[in-house]
Design goal:
alpha+beta, five-stranded mixed β-sheet, 6 helices, 5 strands, binds zinc ion
């Protein structure tokens, strides 16, 4: 089972559940409720700023690189602040909120109180995978450099296309923690 991130790191989707293997998305009706809910949140989330940048300097233009938490109560973080979330979640008790919509408020309160990760904390080490090495990469990735957004061709009814076209990039990551942590929506200390 291959897990993929779409647009943002953090949330991971079962590739076989989301993509039809021919460059398109499967019909929403074939996805489970949680998957469909997360997928439908993504276009909105891509338009919102990094929570930590926004809470810190009111910077509403800082693009998020990763999303954690539950649909409707997400934490969005940019590349720099992903380490802040990892530190809170793994070292400062944030994992108590795993799977709970309270995670968003709890993290925001921690940040708003002036907390951050210590200078020595390196945060997540992401392992990028050569898309060519995936057994069934779905969208055509042959012309795309490793680490570059992967174009996704979508074949959906008109009214659904407008929404899903906003999800214009898919990023493939090796699920290095697959056999260690079955709930890969959250950070693990092993990444
Ligand atoms: Zn930020």
């Amino acid at each position: 089972m291959t897990k993929v991130s779409i647009g943002l790191r953090g949330w991971r989707f079962d590739e076989d559940e989301v993509f039809d293997g021919e460059g398109g998305y499967r019909p929403r009706s074939e996805m489970d409720d949680d998957t469909r809910e997360r997928l439908e949140r993504l276009p909105m989330l891509l338009d919102q700023p990094c929570d930590v940048c926004y809470l810190g300097d009111g910077d509403a233009d800082a693009e998020p690189a990763a999303v954690y938490g539950e649909p409707g109560a997400e934490v969005l973080v940019c590349d720099d602040h992903e380490a802040t979330f990892y530190y809170w979640f793994l070292e400062a008790g944030g994992d108590e909120y795993e799977g709970s919509p309270d995670l968003q408020d709890a993290f925001h309160e921690w940040v708003a109180a002036g907390n951050s990760e210590p200078g020595w904390y390196e945060g997540p080490q992401h392992v990028e995978t050569d898309p060519e090495s995936l057994p069934d990469p779905g969208p055509d990735t042959s012309q795309v450099e490793v680490g570059e957004p992967v174009p996704v061709n979508v074949d959906l009814p008109e009214d659904e296309q407008a929404e899903i076209n906003l999800i214009e990039a898919a990023e493939f990551e090796e699920d290095v923690a697959d056999d260690l942590d079955l709930d890969a929506d959250y950070p693990t200390g092993d990444e």
